[in-house]
Design goal:
By secondary structure, this protein is of the alpha+beta class. The protein has one helix spanning 63-77; strands at 2-11, 14-25, 28-35, 38-44, 50-53. The chain has one domain (2-77). Strand 3 (28-35) and strand 4 (38-44) form a beta hairpin.
Amino acid sequence: MNESFELPVQFRDKIILLPAELKIWGYSHRILVTLEEQVIVFEPDEERNYRALIADGEKLPALEMIKAITESIESVFK
């Protein structure tokens, strides 16, 4: 099951809608969020907190933006 949706992210007093996709991954799931044409993969860790995975060689987004996306995902999926 893959489900596409828009993820509302609050960043610097603005709400930004980012395209996202929920993918089933084995017994878990991953959330793929597109930010400026780059796909960032978020997956739950052992404590059910989300971590960001970025492919080698990809440009690292601002840490502040990663935190904002993570908080938004956690508010939607917890």
